[in-house]
Write a structure and sequence with these properties.
The protein is of the alpha+beta class. The chain has 8 helices and 12 strands. The chain is globular, with a radius of gyration of 20 Å.
Length: 282
């Protein structure tokens, strides 16, 4: 009999079961699920974000919520041998109820483009296609660093929070975002900024995702683009990750962001898969 549960925070044994379930799913299908283990490992006990289905000791279904400001992203999986039993729909309803309790209005359901069951589920909820992202991978042994004329790259501090929030608003349309650099450091997520004549014109974050380096939150103020500053900032942190021993670097970019896509590919990144995002207002 299937038993459903949820948790505030994750223990090591729960993380292990999630990884085992992912392995079972990937054996059956060529999937590259967006599970964000760096975030799972930092779950806090003050919020319910993880939903489970078990049969005896086997985890047969999992769904995770990931909050990003005003919206919540959602992804999950069901063991290949336990599908077509309504497991994910039950997990989804519990997660949706939790989001309603929090006052969340916007959900983004994530599925790989070639995953027909995932696409079918998203559409069955009434969600509508919003956008897509490429997951891109760099696996070369070195990178050519491009030095920007007069560009200073340094690690961001608490005194830079206002500038980081402004860049998030300008580049990503994220209003009222606050990057607490101290908390990011504690999570192993380091943020770097690019300055030109004392003005902050760009930023990028780096972290670890399993055995790979992960690049996130990369942006350059639109007024300073097409001058090589983005390439300088990106190759700088890529070189750092390679020096730290990472043989693979991962990032994600919207498929319609042609300028960023060109930059990443010219720096050696290759497209690995496509994630489709479906929006559901609740």
């Amino acid at each position: 009999m299937n038993e459903f549960s949820s948790s505030n925070g994750l223990e090591e044994r729960q993380l292990l079961k999630i990884r085992e379930l992912e392995t079972a799913c990937r054996k059956n299908e060529k999937l590259c699920m967006k599970l964000n283990y760096d975030m799972l490992e930092e779950r806090t006990a003050d919020e319910r974000n993880d939903f489970f289905c078990c049969k005896d000791e086997l985890l047969t279904g999992y769904l995770g919520l990931y909050g990003f400001g005003a919206h919540v992203e959602l992804t999950g999986m069901v063991h290949p041998e336990y599908r077509r039993q309504g497991i994910f729909r039950t997990l989804f309803q519990s997660a949706k109820d939790e989001c309603i309790k929090r006052g969340v209005k916007r959900l983004l359901l994530i599925t790989e483009k070639d995953n027909a069951p995932g696409l079918g589920f998203c559409l069955s909820t009434g969600a509508r296609y919003s956008f897509s992202e490429y997951r891109m991978v760099f696996s070369k042994k070195d990178v050519q660093i491009h030095s920007g004329h007069g560009l200073v790259i340094r690690k961001a501090g608490q005194e830079d929070r206002a500038e980081l929030a402004l860049l998030d608003e300008i580049c990503f349309k994220r209003i009222n975002e606050d990057t607490d650099t101290k908390k990011e450091d504690e999570k192993g997520r380091n943020v770097y900024i690019a300055e030109l004549e004392g003005k902050v014109i760009g930023k990028v974050g780096i972290a670890q995702e399993d055995e790979a380096g992960y690049v996130f939150g990369f942006c350059i103020d639109p007024a300073f683009r097409r001058r090589g500053y983005g390439r300088s900032l990106l190759t700088y942190v890529m070189s750092m990750l390679i020096s730290d021993g990472f043989s693979t670097i991962i990032l994600e970019v919207e498929t319609e962001n042609e300028n960023a896509l060109y930059l990443y590919e010219s720096c050696g990144f290759q497209r690995a898969t496509v994630y489709d995002y479906y929006e559901l207002m609740i």
